[in-house]
Amino acid sequence: MTGRKSESISIIIDTDVGYDDIGALLYLLKHPEIKIRGISISCGITYIDAGVNNILRLLSYLEKQKIPVVSGKKTPLVVGHTFPKKWREKSAQFYGIKLPPTTLQSSNLSLSQLISFVWKSTKEKITLVALGPLTNLAQVIQDQIKMNDLIERFFIMGGAINIPGNVGSEYSKIPNFVAEWNFFIDPHAANIIFKSEIPKILIPLNATNKVPHTHEFRNKVAKLKMTKSLEIVYQLLNPNESYFWDELAAVALTNPEIITLENHHIKVITDKITQAGWTKSIENKKPNALVAMDVDPLKFEHQFIKILSQDRKEF
Question: What is this structure's pTM?
Answer without folding.
Answer: 0.95
